Amino acid sequence: MDLRECKKCLLLQSGEEDNYNLVQEYIKKIKPGEKCPDGLYSERLEKCKRCDNLISGVCIKCGCYVEFRAAYKNKKCPDAKLKAW
Question: pTM of the prediction?
Answer without folding.
Answer: 0.85
